[in-house]
Amino acid sequence: MNISFPQLFPITRKLHPENQEAPVHFLQNRVTPTDYFFKRNHFAYPQWTTSLFSLIIYGEVHVPLAVAYRQLLFMQVKTLAVVLECAGNQRAFYAPKTYGEQWTNGAVSFGCWTGVPLRDVLQLCGLTAGAKEVVFEGHDVGKHLPSGKQTAYKRSLSLKQALHPDVLIAWQLNGQPLPFAHGGPLRLIVPHWYAMASVKWLKSIAIISGEFQGPFQTEDYVYYPATDSGQQPFPVTTINVNSVIQWPLDFAELKKGVHIIRGIAWTGQGVVTNVELSFNQGKSWTSATLSGFADKPDGYSWKTWSFSWRAEQTGEYTILSRAHDSHGRQQPQEAFWNRKGYGYNAVNKVRVNIV
């Protein structure tokens, strides 16, 4: 007898521009299937033109270049398994609430990206002594809010960051040509950084001698602490250590007995080294079993984890998860509140009723 299962769909948060969460609680693949990969757009999709297949490089270089898509395919290719997470992922959990897309747990995905190291392309141009930052411009254009100014999406990296050997100009996702909806034909991939740095629909790369001051660099993607904290604003960069309990779901009813709790964990510094669970509001913790990709010290994949829980007593339970990484960071009990709701990474929790 053939058994059919309901088809999964991404969770739409907004249609214009299109923003969708991955159905992260129902995905058991270590790599997120492309159809379920989260989407974060600031503007409408750019118009499809042949100019999408070329990349202009100019500024503080000895030889400005127009690099064609086909030329990149013949350069040294690299494939990396990289987590991308929207800086606003889990914003819906902040208290008090913050403005912005009310993402829950699904503005994060894990894919295998193939492309050419950015530094190999920049070496073709020859950088001048004045080169300080590298500015990436996408083909997507629209009004930046709240300023209302018409602008393209642009972000920069310092020269040192841009020359890291694992920063890629990617044209494949999970072994297939990079879909247009995910920034194809060419997008930047910056491992360990929140995904705002991985500029989609790459149009141009400008090497500049100063500091880039675009709105997506100096206004958005900045941590603005509470006004009474005494802290100064600072830029959003690397991903905070984080975890999600995929199963059981929040407010699930379960029967007494043994249940396999499972989830994922990731970080923007080093690798995940441990995931702990608590069943008594954080008074004590016990380690889960990690699996997933065998990471090198600077690996960029997430870890899957599981724990066999024997629920012997009926009643309500809160299950907490917290991840640790190789840089000594762990998920805090409470996330760092900031006015734009970036970088949420408080311990993850689900509430269950044992019947």
Automatic annotation (TrEMBL):
Gene3D superfamilies: 2.60.40.650, Oxidoreductase, molybdopterin-binding domain. Its cofactor is Mo-molybdopterin. One of its GO terms (molecular function) is molybdenum ion binding. Residues 237-353 form the Moybdenum cofactor oxidoreductase dimerisation domain. CDD domains: SO_family_Moco_dimer. The keyword Ligase does not apply. Keywords: Metal-binding, Molybdenum, Oxidoreductase. It holds the Pfam family Oxidored_molyb. InterPro entries: Ig_E-set (IPR014756), MoCF_OxRdtse_dimer (IPR005066), Mopterin_OxRdtase_euk (IPR008335), OxRdtase_Mopterin-bd_dom (IPR000572), OxRdtase_Mopterin-bd_sf (IPR036374). Residues 42-215 form the Oxidoreductase molybdopterin-binding domain. GO terms for biological process: sulfur compound metabolic process. This is Mo-co oxidoreductase dimerisation domain-containing protein.
